[in-house]
Amino acid sequence: MDEEKVVKAFERGRASILVRPNAKKDELLCWDEEKNAFRVAIAARAENNEANLAVIKFFSKLAGKRVHIIKGLKSKSKILSITP
Questions:
Q1: pLDDT at residue 3, as a whole number
Q2: pTM for this structure?
Q3: Across the chain, where does the E strand assignment appear?
Q4: Is residue 17 a contact partner of residue 37, using CB atoms and an 8 Å limit?
Q5: What are the CA-CA distances from residue 7 to residues 47, 51, 57 (Å)?
Q6: Which domains does the chain have, with CATH numbers?
Q7: Which of 20, 24, 45, 79 would bridge 71 by S-S if both were Cys, CB 3.0 to 4.6 A apart?
Q8: HSE of 38 in the Cβ direction (CA atoms, 13 Å)?
Q9: CB contact set of 52 (below 8 Å; sequence gap of 6+)
Q10: How far apart are CA 43 and CA 39, in angstroms?
């Protein structure tokens, strides 16, 4: 994983992600050049908002900042807002 892209996304305050729920563990998989987004595996199910909460928790811990989903609450494609 290209850490430089992760750092730049956190500095900009926004990140586009593609979520794969029901994975074995939470992890940042790769940068998708075609979609211009990070691919992320999340262990939580995509039911009852569980995956969204897991995405927020995962990226908050990764960035050390507050994270909100600003677009894509019911989609695998999401845009995150990252604030100090």
A1: 64
A2: 0.89
A3: 14-20, 27-32, 37-41, 66-71, 77-83
A4: yes
A5: 30, 23, 17
A6: 3-83 (3.30.1200.10)
A7: 79
A8: 25
A9: 69, 73, 78
A10: 13
